[in-house]
Design goal:
With 301 residues, the protein is of the alpha/beta class. The chain has 13 helices and 5 strands. This is Chromosome partitioning protein, ParB family. Pfam families: ParB_N (PF02195), RepB (PF07506).
Amino acid sequence: MNYAPVEHTVLVPVDAITVVNPRLRNKKVFDEITANIAELGLKRPITVAARETEDGDKPVYELVCGQGRLEAFKVLGQSEIPAIVINASSEDCLVMSLVENLARRQHHSLDLLRDIGRLKEKGYSEAEIAAKTQLSKKYVHGVIKLLESHEHRLLRAVESGKIPVSVAVDIADADDVGVQRVLRQAYEKKLLRGGRLLAAKRLVEARQKHGKGRANTVERPRKSLSVETLLKTYENDVEKKKVLLRKAGATRSELLFLTQALKTLMADENFVTLLRAEGLASLPKQVADRLTQSEEASACR
Protein backbone atom coordinates (compact mmCIF):
# COMPACT_ATOMS: atom_id res chain seq x y z
CA MET A 1 0.00 0.00 0.00
CA ASN A 2 1.31 3.44 -0.98
CA TYR A 3 0.91 6.61 1.08
CA ALA A 4 0.80 10.12 -0.30
CA PRO A 5 3.66 12.12 1.22
CA VAL A 6 2.31 14.54 3.84
CA GLU A 7 4.44 16.89 5.92
CA HIS A 8 4.61 16.46 9.70
CA THR A 9 3.04 13.00 9.71
CA VAL A 10 4.14 9.95 11.68
CA LEU A 11 3.16 6.30 11.59
CA VAL A 12 0.91 5.45 14.55
CA PRO A 13 -0.13 1.92 15.57
CA VAL A 14 -3.85 1.50 14.81
CA ASP A 15 -4.38 -0.46 18.04
CA ALA A 16 -3.08 2.50 20.08
CA ILE A 17 -5.86 4.85 18.86
CA THR A 18 -9.13 5.40 20.75
CA VAL A 19 -12.15 6.86 18.96
CA VAL A 20 -13.61 9.52 21.28
CA ASN A 21 -16.68 10.31 19.13
CA PRO A 22 -17.67 7.01 17.47
CA ARG A 23 -20.52 6.86 15.00
CA LEU A 24 -22.16 4.28 12.77
CA ARG A 25 -21.04 4.13 9.16
CA ASN A 26 -22.97 3.57 5.94
CA LYS A 27 -21.68 0.18 4.78
CA LYS A 28 -21.69 1.07 1.09
CA VAL A 29 -19.76 4.30 1.67
CA PHE A 30 -17.33 2.53 4.01
CA ASP A 31 -16.69 -0.23 1.45
CA GLU A 32 -15.89 2.46 -1.14
CA ILE A 33 -13.44 4.13 1.25
CA THR A 34 -11.74 0.80 1.93
CA ALA A 35 -11.51 -0.05 -1.79
CA ASN A 36 -10.05 3.36 -2.64
CA ILE A 37 -7.42 3.12 0.09
CA ALA A 38 -6.50 -0.42 -0.98
CA GLU A 39 -6.05 0.70 -4.60
CA LEU A 40 -4.67 4.23 -4.29
CA GLY A 41 -3.35 4.47 -0.74
CA LEU A 42 -4.18 7.02 1.95
CA LYS A 43 -4.47 10.50 0.45
CA ARG A 44 -4.98 12.36 3.73
CA PRO A 45 -3.64 11.32 7.15
CA ILE A 46 -5.87 11.09 10.17
CA THR A 47 -5.51 13.49 13.12
CA VAL A 48 -4.85 12.26 16.65
CA ALA A 49 -3.86 13.66 20.04
CA ALA A 50 -1.14 11.98 22.07
CA ARG A 51 -1.84 10.74 25.61
CA GLU A 52 0.61 9.65 28.28
CA THR A 53 0.20 6.23 29.87
CA GLU A 54 0.66 5.53 33.57
CA ASP A 55 3.67 3.28 33.01
CA GLY A 56 5.08 5.63 30.38
CA ASP A 57 5.69 2.69 28.06
CA LYS A 58 3.95 2.91 24.70
CA PRO A 59 2.13 6.14 23.76
CA VAL A 60 -1.62 6.07 23.14
CA TYR A 61 -3.74 8.41 21.07
CA GLU A 62 -7.27 9.80 20.83
CA LEU A 63 -8.77 10.19 17.39
CA VAL A 64 -9.78 13.71 16.34
CA CYS A 65 -10.89 12.97 12.78
CA GLY A 66 -10.57 10.09 10.33
CA GLN A 67 -12.66 7.26 11.83
CA GLY A 68 -13.55 5.87 8.40
CA ARG A 69 -9.93 5.83 7.28
CA LEU A 70 -8.82 4.24 10.56
CA GLU A 71 -11.44 1.47 10.34
CA ALA A 72 -10.52 0.87 6.69
CA PHE A 73 -6.86 0.35 7.67
CA LYS A 74 -7.96 -2.18 10.30
CA VAL A 75 -10.06 -4.06 7.74
CA LEU A 76 -7.11 -4.09 5.34
CA GLY A 77 -4.91 -5.62 8.04
CA GLN A 78 -2.57 -2.63 8.40
CA SER A 79 -0.80 -2.26 11.74
CA GLU A 80 0.13 1.44 11.36
CA ILE A 81 -1.50 4.50 9.81
CA PRO A 82 -0.11 7.94 8.86
CA ALA A 83 -1.33 10.53 11.36
CA ILE A 84 -0.88 14.16 12.32
CA VAL A 85 -0.30 14.36 16.08
CA ILE A 86 -1.58 17.47 17.87
CA ASN A 87 -1.65 18.68 21.47
CA ALA A 88 -5.27 18.84 22.71
CA SER A 89 -7.27 17.79 25.78
CA SER A 90 -9.85 15.02 25.62
CA GLU A 91 -12.67 17.56 25.66
CA ASP A 92 -11.02 19.56 22.89
CA CYS A 93 -10.66 16.36 20.86
CA LEU A 94 -14.35 15.63 21.27
CA VAL A 95 -15.36 19.15 20.24
CA MET A 96 -12.96 19.15 17.29
CA SER A 97 -14.35 15.80 16.18
CA LEU A 98 -17.92 17.11 16.41
CA VAL A 99 -17.05 20.28 14.49
CA GLU A 100 -15.16 18.35 11.81
CA ASN A 101 -18.11 16.00 11.28
CA LEU A 102 -20.59 18.88 11.31
CA ALA A 103 -18.63 20.90 8.78
CA ARG A 104 -18.36 18.16 6.17
CA ARG A 105 -21.66 16.30 6.60
CA GLN A 106 -24.81 17.12 4.64
CA HIS A 107 -27.29 19.08 6.66
CA HIS A 108 -30.00 16.42 6.65
CA SER A 109 -28.11 13.89 8.76
CA LEU A 110 -29.50 12.91 12.16
CA ASP A 111 -25.93 12.82 13.46
CA LEU A 112 -25.66 16.47 12.49
CA LEU A 113 -28.69 17.36 14.61
CA ARG A 114 -27.41 15.40 17.60
CA ASP A 115 -23.91 16.84 17.30
CA ILE A 116 -25.31 20.37 17.38
CA GLY A 117 -27.05 19.39 20.62
CA ARG A 118 -23.82 18.00 22.06
CA LEU A 119 -21.96 21.21 21.27
CA LYS A 120 -24.75 23.15 22.98
CA GLU A 121 -24.39 20.89 26.03
CA LYS A 122 -20.65 21.67 26.07
CA GLY A 123 -21.53 25.29 26.67
CA TYR A 124 -21.08 26.71 23.18
CA SER A 125 -23.49 29.46 22.16
CA GLU A 126 -25.57 29.26 19.02
CA ALA A 127 -23.37 31.91 17.38
CA GLU A 128 -20.21 29.96 18.24
CA ILE A 129 -21.67 26.72 16.89
CA ALA A 130 -22.70 28.46 13.67
CA ALA A 131 -19.23 29.98 13.27
CA LYS A 132 -17.41 26.70 13.93
CA THR A 133 -19.64 24.59 11.68
CA GLN A 134 -20.27 27.16 8.95
CA LEU A 135 -24.00 26.63 9.35
CA SER A 136 -26.45 29.52 9.44
CA LYS A 137 -27.46 30.88 12.85
CA LYS A 138 -31.11 30.33 11.91
CA TYR A 139 -30.47 26.65 11.19
CA VAL A 140 -28.55 26.12 14.44
CA HIS A 141 -31.22 27.97 16.44
CA GLY A 142 -33.95 25.86 14.82
CA VAL A 143 -32.26 22.54 15.51
CA ILE A 144 -31.54 23.44 19.14
CA LYS A 145 -35.12 24.57 19.63
CA LEU A 146 -36.47 21.28 18.24
CA LEU A 147 -34.06 19.29 20.42
CA GLU A 148 -34.97 21.21 23.58
CA SER A 149 -38.70 20.83 22.80
CA HIS A 150 -38.25 17.06 22.31
CA GLU A 151 -39.81 17.32 18.84
CA HIS A 152 -38.51 13.92 17.81
CA ARG A 153 -41.09 13.43 15.07
CA LEU A 154 -40.18 16.74 13.45
CA LEU A 155 -36.45 16.07 13.89
CA ARG A 156 -36.77 12.76 12.05
CA ALA A 157 -38.60 14.58 9.25
CA VAL A 158 -35.79 17.16 9.03
CA GLU A 159 -33.17 14.40 9.10
CA SER A 160 -34.84 12.51 6.24
CA GLY A 161 -35.17 15.69 4.17
CA LYS A 162 -38.98 15.68 4.18
CA ILE A 163 -39.27 19.24 5.52
CA PRO A 164 -36.81 22.14 5.96
CA VAL A 165 -35.73 22.93 9.51
CA SER A 166 -37.33 26.40 9.30
CA VAL A 167 -40.72 24.84 8.51
CA ALA A 168 -40.29 22.32 11.34
CA VAL A 169 -39.64 25.14 13.82
CA ASP A 170 -42.71 27.05 12.60
CA ILE A 171 -44.84 23.91 13.01
CA ALA A 172 -43.50 23.40 16.55
CA ASP A 173 -44.43 27.00 17.46
CA ALA A 174 -47.91 26.93 15.88
CA ASP A 175 -51.23 25.68 17.25
CA ASP A 176 -53.53 23.36 15.29
CA VAL A 177 -54.99 26.24 13.27
CA GLY A 178 -51.63 27.94 12.77
CA VAL A 179 -50.06 24.73 11.40
CA GLN A 180 -52.27 24.92 8.32
CA ARG A 181 -51.11 28.49 7.77
CA VAL A 182 -47.48 27.34 8.08
CA LEU A 183 -48.01 24.66 5.42
CA ARG A 184 -49.74 27.13 3.10
CA GLN A 185 -46.91 29.65 3.47
CA ALA A 186 -44.32 26.91 2.88
CA TYR A 187 -46.15 25.98 -0.32
CA GLU A 188 -46.28 29.60 -1.48
CA LYS A 189 -42.54 29.99 -0.82
CA LYS A 190 -41.93 26.74 -2.77
CA LEU A 191 -40.40 25.09 0.30
CA LEU A 192 -42.95 22.26 0.17
CA ARG A 193 -44.35 21.03 -3.11
CA GLY A 194 -45.79 17.79 -4.46
CA GLY A 195 -44.87 14.69 -2.48
CA ARG A 196 -43.06 16.70 0.21
CA LEU A 197 -46.23 18.71 0.89
CA LEU A 198 -48.30 15.53 1.21
CA ALA A 199 -45.66 14.01 3.51
CA ALA A 200 -45.70 17.18 5.65
CA LYS A 201 -49.50 17.01 5.95
CA ARG A 202 -49.33 13.38 7.06
CA LEU A 203 -46.61 14.32 9.55
CA VAL A 204 -48.77 17.10 11.01
CA GLU A 205 -51.74 14.75 11.33
CA ALA A 206 -49.60 12.10 13.05
CA ARG A 207 -48.14 14.74 15.40
CA GLN A 208 -51.62 16.01 16.33
CA LYS A 209 -52.89 12.48 16.90
CA HIS A 210 -49.91 10.76 18.51
CA GLY A 211 -47.79 13.63 19.89
CA LYS A 212 -44.20 14.69 19.30
CA GLY A 213 -42.86 11.18 19.06
CA ARG A 214 -40.07 9.45 20.97
CA ALA A 215 -36.33 9.67 20.78
CA ASN A 216 -36.09 5.89 20.68
CA THR A 217 -38.70 3.30 20.02
CA VAL A 218 -39.56 1.54 23.27
CA GLU A 219 -40.95 -1.95 23.10
CA ARG A 220 -44.34 -2.12 24.75
CA PRO A 221 -44.85 -4.85 27.35
CA ARG A 222 -46.97 -7.69 26.09
CA LYS A 223 -50.27 -8.31 27.79
CA SER A 224 -50.87 -11.76 29.23
CA LEU A 225 -53.56 -13.65 27.35
CA SER A 226 -56.55 -14.86 29.36
CA VAL A 227 -58.64 -17.94 28.54
CA GLU A 228 -61.46 -15.67 27.34
CA THR A 229 -59.07 -13.80 25.02
CA LEU A 230 -57.71 -17.03 23.55
CA LEU A 231 -61.22 -18.36 23.04
CA LYS A 232 -62.32 -15.15 21.35
CA THR A 233 -59.27 -15.24 19.08
CA TYR A 234 -60.03 -18.84 18.16
CA GLU A 235 -63.68 -18.03 17.40
CA ASN A 236 -62.66 -15.11 15.19
CA ASP A 237 -60.22 -17.32 13.31
CA VAL A 238 -62.87 -20.01 12.78
CA GLU A 239 -65.36 -17.40 11.53
CA LYS A 240 -62.81 -16.07 9.03
CA LYS A 241 -62.24 -19.60 7.70
CA LYS A 242 -66.00 -20.13 7.38
CA VAL A 243 -66.29 -16.96 5.32
CA LEU A 244 -63.49 -18.15 3.05
CA LEU A 245 -65.19 -21.54 2.62
CA ARG A 246 -68.49 -19.87 1.74
CA LYS A 247 -66.76 -17.70 -0.84
CA ALA A 248 -64.95 -20.73 -2.27
CA GLY A 249 -68.23 -22.65 -2.49
CA ALA A 250 -69.98 -19.77 -4.25
CA THR A 251 -67.11 -19.41 -6.70
CA ARG A 252 -67.19 -23.16 -7.43
CA SER A 253 -70.93 -23.07 -8.06
CA GLU A 254 -70.55 -20.13 -10.47
CA LEU A 255 -67.73 -21.93 -12.29
CA LEU A 256 -69.82 -25.10 -12.63
CA PHE A 257 -72.75 -23.08 -13.99
CA LEU A 258 -70.58 -21.32 -16.55
CA THR A 259 -68.97 -24.61 -17.62
CA GLN A 260 -72.35 -26.29 -18.05
CA ALA A 261 -73.74 -23.30 -19.97
CA LEU A 262 -70.76 -23.25 -22.32
CA LYS A 263 -71.00 -27.02 -22.77
CA THR A 264 -74.66 -26.69 -23.76
CA LEU A 265 -73.86 -23.93 -26.23
CA MET A 266 -71.02 -25.93 -27.81
CA ALA A 267 -73.44 -28.83 -28.33
CA ASP A 268 -75.67 -26.55 -30.41
CA GLU A 269 -74.66 -26.91 -34.09
CA ASN A 270 -76.14 -23.55 -35.04
CA PHE A 271 -74.06 -21.81 -32.36
CA VAL A 272 -70.91 -23.62 -33.45
CA THR A 273 -71.58 -22.68 -37.10
CA LEU A 274 -71.91 -19.04 -36.08
CA LEU A 275 -68.60 -19.21 -34.21
CA ARG A 276 -66.89 -20.69 -37.27
CA ALA A 277 -68.29 -17.95 -39.48
CA GLU A 278 -66.81 -15.36 -37.14
CA GLY A 279 -63.48 -17.17 -36.91
CA LEU A 280 -64.02 -18.09 -33.26
CA ALA A 281 -64.34 -21.83 -33.53
CA SER A 282 -61.33 -22.65 -31.33
CA LEU A 283 -61.45 -22.31 -27.53
CA PRO A 284 -58.69 -21.26 -25.16
CA LYS A 285 -56.81 -24.30 -23.88
CA GLN A 286 -57.89 -23.76 -20.25
CA VAL A 287 -61.57 -23.57 -21.24
CA ALA A 288 -61.30 -26.60 -23.56
CA ASP A 289 -59.59 -28.63 -20.81
CA ARG A 290 -62.35 -27.63 -18.38
CA LEU A 291 -65.05 -28.85 -20.77
CA THR A 292 -63.16 -32.09 -21.36
CA GLN A 293 -62.86 -32.71 -17.61
CA SER A 294 -66.57 -32.02 -17.19
CA GLU A 295 -67.44 -34.52 -19.91
CA GLU A 296 -65.15 -37.18 -18.42
CA ALA A 297 -66.68 -36.62 -14.98
CA SER A 298 -70.19 -37.01 -16.41
CA ALA A 299 -69.19 -40.22 -18.20
CA CYS A 300 -67.89 -41.75 -14.99
CA ARG A 301 -71.14 -41.21 -13.13
